[in-house]
Design a protein that fits this description.
With 391 residues, the chain is an alpha/beta fold. The chain is built from 12 helices and 15 strands. The longest helix is centred in the middle third of the chain and has 19 residues. It binds pyridoxal-5'-phosphate.
Length: 391
């Protein structure tokens, strides 16, 4: 068996990409909001079904910029169960992250634990649709409305996810998507902000271009975070493969579930009702006491299967944060982080590769010789609460 990596970037048809970038040799217009940039913006507004889209050179600077655009101050409630970017974007805006624990079923921010963290200094909530799993969007919005807080979603994992047909990027005040090469949709590097408030459009355009408002006016301390034409062209071409890739990923996830559900002590992510998933990641929590997550990762690597401890360590345990935080205050997140692995998953993954990963895990199961066990994967489907109704 060849090496099986945790992810493999989807490449569009080569000729198609070349065709898309050809006219750049005529225009000599390679960046600063050119025709490809405008075309992709338009396509994404349609695809993500959101009124406004602002493109960025990467997801991280998009998040930094939207936090800056809202002129926040003081504390921001967020999740420690995420990629470094979410917290760094908050801190680099001079804001103080306050970590809220996660829900043991979805691994997203536990909305029932937000209120106890709110102080007079709280200005926003930054939840993460981690692995593409939809947060308790209604619960979070209720709290935000009650305390007049902004809600900015890190939707880096959630491209193409919908709830009852509604684009995930239309919840809260704004959402950030990442188009990094490892994400389900990519522009090599890239990202965007989706939002409804028209007045943010000028602000974001200025913030991603040094705060330049016009020829004679610089009115904000902006950054340089513009998406260039080659990135945008990659996005234009890749967008046409999204539905096909989603179907391929769905099949892989379904095969994984079939292959792993009878192995004792594993906890798999439940599917969410009324949610169209993008099947971005396949996290497995090695919950059973006899499992040793690190040992599984090592053994898989010895067999040429490369998984990731995604997300470990927890952000509040990072060397740069642990002096100011105590991860025992987010025990659910700490527990999951200590037991999780994300398995290889990419559109081009073959049936044999999926079978092989499942086989290896089954072979190394410490429960292999046990006669009797109760599978952990019989949890109910998680229901997204509708506005005005009670689950
Ligand atoms: C990828 C990612 C980001 C950052 O996006 P980039 O495009 O790589 O800058 C932010 N948050 C999460 C959860 C991510 O996975």
């Amino acid at each position: 068996m060849k090496r099986i990596l945790v992810t493999k970037t989807s490449m569009p048809d080569f000729e198609e990409y070349i065709e898309e970038i050809k006219d750049l040799w005529d225009s000599h217009h390679l960046t600063n909001m050119g025709v490809k940039h405008e075309k992709l913006t338009f396509m994404l507004r349609e695809f993500l079904s959101t009124p406004y889209v602002s493109l960025f050179t990467n997801g991280h600077l998009a998040l930094e910029s939207i936090l800056s655009a809202f002129d926040l101050s003081g504390e921001v409630i967020t999740t420690p169960y995420t990629f470094a970017s979410t917290t760094h974007a908050i801190v680099r805006n001079g804001l103080v992250p306050v970590f809220c624990d996660i829900d043991p079923g979805t691994y997203t921010m536990d909305a029932s634990k937000i209120e106890e963290l709110i102080t007079e200094n709280t200005s926003a909530i930054v939840p993460v649709h981690v692995y593409g799993t939809v947060c308790d969007v209604e619960g979070i919005q209720r709290i935000a409305d009650k305390y007049n807080l902004k809600v900015i979603y890190d939707a880096a994992h959630a491209f193409g996810v919908t709830v009852n047909g509604r684009g995930i990027g239309s919840f809260g005040d704004a959402s950030m998507f990442s188009f990094h090469a490892t994400k389900v949709f990519h522009t090599i590097e890239g990202g965007c902000i989706t939002f409804r408030d028209y007045s943010l459009l000028d602000k974001l355009n200025s913030l991603k271009n040094f705060g330049i408002k016009g020829p004679d006016c610089v009115d904000a301390i902006g950054s340089n975070a513009k998406m260039n034409e080659f990135q945008a062209a990659m996005g234009i071409v890749n967008l046409s493969y999204i539905d096909e890739n989603r179907k391929k990923r769905e099949k892989i996830v379904s095969d994984y579930k079939n292959g792993l559900s009878s192995i004792p002590g594993l906890k798999l992510l439940s599917s969410q009702q009324d949610v169209l998933s993008n099947y971005a990641y396949f996290p497995v929590v090695f919950e059973g006491e006899k499992w040793d997550r690190d040992n599984v990762a090592d053994k898989l690597a010895q067999n040429n299967v490369f998984v990731r401890k995604y997300f470990y360590p927890l952000v509040n345990d990072f060397d740069c944060y642990r002096h100011d935080y105590d991860s025992s205050k987010t025990p659910v997140a700490r527990h999951i982080a200590s037991k999780v692995l994300t398995l290889p998953l990419y559109a081009e993954m073959t049936d044999e590769e999926v079978d092989h990963v499942c086989y290896l895990i089954e072979e190394m199961s410490p429960y292999k010789n046990d006669m009797l066990y109760v599978p952990l994967n019989n949890e109910p489907t998680i229901h997204i609460k509708e506005r005005g109704t009670r689950a």
